[in-house]
Sequence to fold (338 residues):
Amino acid sequence: MRARNPLLWWALPAALLGTSSVAVAAPMTLTGQPPLVINHRGASGYLPEETLEAYRLSVAQHADFLEGDVYLTRDNVPIMLHDGTLNATTNVVQYAATHPEIAALRSPDGTYDATRFTYAQIEQLTAGFRAANGYGSDRRFYDPAYDYKITTLNQLADYAYSTYASTGQLVGIYPEAKQSGLLVADAILGVLQDPKYNGYFDAGRNTAILQSFDPAQVAYLNGLTDVPVTQLGVCPSTAVQAGQIASYADGVGPSTSQTTAACVQLAHDAGLFVHPYTFLNNPNQYQTYYGYGVDGVFTNFADIALGVRDQVFVPEPASAALLGLGLAGLIGLRRRSA
Fold:
């Protein structure tokens, strides 16, 4: 099967994105709707990345989607972790110094591979900031005495769903199959398809997007679900390349250095959305890329991304008629082609 017509369901009023406005003066996004604000690893500019507290702050700042990377622990629990090793974002080195059972999991190169840990062992660790620009650069919400924990994908999905159930606010999740192989892809789909969510993460609900750098994983996921799937790490330089990507993916997630107005246009011409990464706390950067017509931004600072978006995309109250049109558009437009 080939990829379905991507993101046609995205042409919905912004009310379905958890906001109260639609754009009337917008650059050339794929659908004409304002770009998504995708909080990268949660509110990682303010709180330790991929912790539940960072994701909660993301929702408080009205991010459209909560993004994170997925690895499987030794006992097959899908956890949110970027590096695969625990060194950069937890206190594992210090903890191992007084816990021989954890020290025994150290690799010869000095790293602690999360796939060698059970989830119960990872729960013993405290999450913190990585030493990199844009992570924890604004710590006004951070409590150094608090015991932050790595989040599981199940916990993230539970939080998004419970937020909707209790408040009506649509919160999307954007998990990345970071670990190599197909087991992690199956685990992600297993979480999204759990019956306890009552179809909340189904295609057409505007509550889930999948992603990977690995074309094989992207194609695999694309063949198993109608949830949109993003090919990371590329922005097409030719129409032929864009068409090739569109044969197995719904969108692209290039780095900001890869992203130009020309490649955005090529992607759009092929029906691909464009979600560049990673945006920090420079308002001018958002202004530039919104001007390119990108369809979303992976950002460590959702509040800044939203502030600039509201300046670029002039809002007006969404009407009931538009809402009805958007819902009607869900029917039929997201059908998979044979």
The first strand starts at residue 21 and ends at 23. The CA atoms of residues 233 and 311 lie 28 Å apart.
